[in-house]
Amino acid sequence: MNPIDEVTQELQKIPWFQELKPEHLRQFAEISFLRHYKAGEVFFHEGDKQDYFYIVLSGRVALDLFIPHRGKIRFYTCEQWDNFGWSSVTPVVRTRTAGAVGVVDGIVIATDTDKLQALCDRDHDIGYLFMRRMVNVIASRLLVTRLQLLDMFAEPTETKTDE
Amino acid sequence: MTTTLIDTASHQAGFENKLLMPAWAEVVKITPEAEGVTTFALRFTDPEVQKRYRWEPGQFNMLYVPGYGEAAISMSSDVSSSNGLVIHTIRQAASVTKATNRLRPGDVVGLRGPFGSSWPLEAIRGMDVVIACGGIGLPPLRGALYAIMREREKYGKVTLLYGARTPKDLMYPDEYETWNKAGIEVQATVDRGDETWTGRVGVVPMLFYHFRVDPHKTAVLTCGPEIMMRFVIYEALARRIPASQIYVSLERNMRCGQGFCGHCQMGPYFICKDGPVFPFNRLGPFFNVEEY
To answer: Which of B80, B139, B190, B235 is the most exposed place for a label (fewest CB within 10 A)?
Structure first.
């Protein structure tokens, strides 16, 4: 099987890609490739130039930030069909805002960001579907971030339970 | 049991009419679980009380630390295999629970209970079960986990979704393998991890994204920070799991344990007597209302 067919086959398994027409799937596959990664393998560091958008097919990838005196803090992990590197398709963010590293061996689909943007600009049907998916991703990340910021597991106030 | 609501009086096996008087219990063993969280194994000093004491997973005791006061603490052990000991896992959060730090084996505390409703383990037989909990919300569900494991064939797929702030805050980590082997799929996540953590990082409600549910035959049992439970409920309802199949354990300012004092009132309910375990269809109108 040639690489494009291989990517197409994997894309067809992803629920949100099932809305795409076959020609759109093909166009997406043409700008993408499968990447096998190992635990500990770095996809990118914070500050790197944006180049690829990733969809996890298997394994686990952690997003992290380096904090002085605390080291690298992992704040999110991506698993099957989750995306990372999505900010690379926004017009404003031009460098990575976090690092990404494999923590469990697996496979991702890597998609060339510049070509993806061009594809979305050229064909608004695929652009709309892709951006709608991105809104879902951003909304769920926002929720996770909000709950993390709220520090759900902080100690309750003195009066809450045992006073 | 077909409902989560229990006639409290019928569950006072060891206390008869002494619901307002604590029975003394000796601290037999102390086990640190995580930072600021400790498990205490207690045995009643009166053998008669010890013999007659019965409880169901999800219920709680009012634990009295002499000189400090009482706190409502759920039982956190297996009903049938704790050698008659009452096990409480306590987070040292406020004055009474912080005072438990001073306890040593041989010290004595007071116990009133058991109080409240329990997890509906009979009503959910035959169903898939999602147990979603966070932080100190796991201990009140641990007894339910062991009860399910004991009769594993009577339940469908059982999944434990558990979250904590950091990896070192995860409770009972040594037991996860046992639970997995017993047919409970354990999915743990933390809010933030360091470079050595290879598990999940994220929040409990998002764990729903990693598996499919059959809404009509799935029950959800949830306990933990109320904000976490709120979003667990949203995720469950979004998957069309009926509110009557979502069970929530609430924590409020329990005092008397019998619905007399009103400290834990929430709408028409007293959490200590009508709860702490509620099906969400009963709780819905009063849940997440600021005044409550």
So the answer is: B80
Q: Domain holding B77: CATH number?
A: 2.40.30.10
* B interface with A, Cβ–Cβ below 8 Å: 36, 69-72, 91, 93-97, 134-135, 164-165, 169, 191-195, 197-203, 205-206, 209-210, 224-225, 227-228, 231, 251-254
DSSP string computed for A132-151: HHHHHHHHHHHHHHHHHHHT
Contact A150/B166 with Cβ under 8 angstroms? no
**What is the separation of C-alpha A25 from the centre of its chain, rounded to a whole number of angstroms?**
18
Of B69, B198, B252, Cβ closest to residue A104: B198
Q: Are both B135 and B57 inside the same structural domain? A: no
| ipTM score of complex | 0.82
Q: Cβ of B192 and A73 within 8 Å? A: yes
pLDDT surpassing 60 at residue B4: no
CB–CB of A153 and B95 under 8 A? no
Co-location of B147 and B101 in the same domain: no
- Please check whether residues B56 and B149 belong to one and the same domain: no
Count: domains in chain B: 2
Structure tokens at B84: 């008659």
Set of chain A residues whose Cβ sits within 8 Å of the Cβ of B200:
60, 77, 79
Scanning every residue of chain B, which has its alpha carbon at the shortest distance from the alpha carbon of A152? Answer: B225
Three-class secondary structure of residue B225 per DSSP: coil
Contact A144 B197 (CB under 8 A): no
Strand positions, DSSP E, chain A: 32-37, 42-44, 52-67, 71-78, 83-84, 99-112
- Picking from B115, B141, B158, the residue at the C-terminal end of a domain is B115
CA torsion sign for B36, B89, B156, B250 is negative
Structural domain span for residue B47: 8-115
- Indicate if B216 and B178 belong to the same structural domain: yes
Test A153 with B164 for CB contact under 8 angstroms.
Answer: yes
Q: Tell me which of A62-76, A130-144, B207-221, B248-262 is least confident.
A: B248-262
Confidence (pLDDT) at B83? 73
The larger pLDDT score, comparing residue B23 to residue B84, is at: B23
Q: Which domains does chain A have, with CATH numbers?
A: 3-150 (2.60.120.10)
CA dist., res. B39 & res. B255, Å (int): 22
Whether residue B110 is found in the same domain as residue B132: no
Q: Is the pLDDT of residue A38 over 50?
A: yes
Collect all residues of chain A within an 8 Å Cβ-Cβ radius of residue B203: 143-144, 147-148, 152
CATH code: domain of residue B194:
3.40.50.80
Residues of B in contact with A159 (CB under 8 A): 94, 253
Model pLDDT for residues B267-284, shown as the tens digit of each residue: 888 888 888 999 999 887
